[in-house]
Automatic annotation (TrEMBL):
Species: Onychostoma macrolepis
Protein name per the record: G protein-activated inward rectifier potassium channel 1
One BP term from GO: nervous system development
SUPFAM superfamilies (UniProt xref): E set domains, Voltage-gated potassium channels
Compositional bias per record (Basic and acidic residues), positions renumbered to this chain: 380-389
The keyword Manganese appears for this protein: no
Amino acid sequence: MSTIRRKFGEDYQVVNTNRAMSFSAPAKRKRQRFVEKNGRCNVQHGNLGGETSRYISDLFTTLVDLKWRWNMLIFLLTYTVAWLIMASMWWIIAYIRGDLGHGHDESYTPCVANVYNFPSAFLFFIETEATIGYGYRYITEKCPEGIILFLFQSLLGSIVDAFLIGCMFIKMSQPKKRAETLMFSQDAVISQRDGKLCLMFRVGNLRNSHMVSAQIRCKLIKSRQTPEGEFLPLDQRELDVGFGTGADQLFLVSPLTICHEINSNSPFFDLSQRSLMNEQFEIVVILEGIVETTGMTCQARTSYTEDEVLWGHRFLPVMSLEEGFFRVDYSEFHNTFEVPTPPYSVKEQDEKSSLPSPGPVLSPTLLDGHNRRERIFSFDGVHHTEEPGSKLPSKLQRMSSKNGKEVLKTGSTQPTEKASSMSDLPLRVQRLGSLVGQGEAENQLQLKPLKLGSEAHTQSAGELEHHRLVPVPAPVPGPSLNPLPASSGRPEDNLPPKLRRMNADH
């Protein structure tokens, strides 16, 4: 372990040192970070030029942001200089009035009693500033300039105390130290959860006091080049960790695993196990919340580089149920174990799943049999794609369609109506039907007997039009209930005897 640290630096962490048989840490060189593991941003501002005066305009924030050693130095120097300046002013007043030569003369009334040198003037200022009031040194009523200096000293001392003490109080009460008790896992993992590839890491709270309104955010820091040729160093992109579902709002009383689903909207949509070795990126994690004890907002940060993202791993569970409470074992907080995970990216998996599967190929025999079946069992004896009435004379087509609609209307209200002879058809259709030649008889309207109960009924032209529009079901093997009459040499032979006699008379 010490050899690895000497080689890769103190910040290098070996994952699962107590379980080295599971897997070994990736031996990759350490590179420059944008955000350190402890949350410190590795950015320095230089060449400000004339913009340095902006720091003086916000002096209070500048003092609070300084390091502790500079704060202590400024604190001590400010009080020391202020005390020396005020003590010198009291000594100057005593020197101008000539009080220094009458220090022990009881008949002489000085401006400040018992001030006859600089140390005595310094002690008088400290007693006045700290309101100690020993009673040995005091201002007399015959020194108006001393009274004015006393008022100025009181006002200046209050301002200096408020500024410096307030600065030190804010410095000490900053919630930065509260972030030290918020933990992040040393590594992030990529594995499947609920059938989806996800990027996950773990957060935890070491204190019993809660983080109120805790919220987590993730940023991907990666340089890229736009299609226009512009290079964007350290470009920042948002990683969705449940903003739409509210999963980013944490109830951080126990360690939680934060999940980022890798989908088409994720920057890692085309990231695979192989491409992960050649990528260069950094994931910055920001956890914000309100400290329950102080009510101040706290922010904890960390980051994960590409060599700290483990493909095909999952975090070990740290929660266990004890007698009367739940126990968190933080010794397993950073440990992971390997799980079966496809090495492909989500983009590659989607492309594979979207490929069309080969369908069954129908043989020509089956196709011919299907077409033949359609031709045989079509209602009017012709192919179903052809219009049966298209071979009739135009005048008969118009008359048959017109009268067929009327028969359909009456047939819906009186389904038991029957047509027993040619006389039930319209008179004009009868005359036209008798004039049609023998060669066109096959293309004319054919009346097929239907067996309903014990009687055979003929169908009108409107009923035939109606049946032509209704698809015919597939044939069922077995004896036919409505056999078609055997075809003969002439079409007249298929007509009923009464209709044949009527045609013969005409």
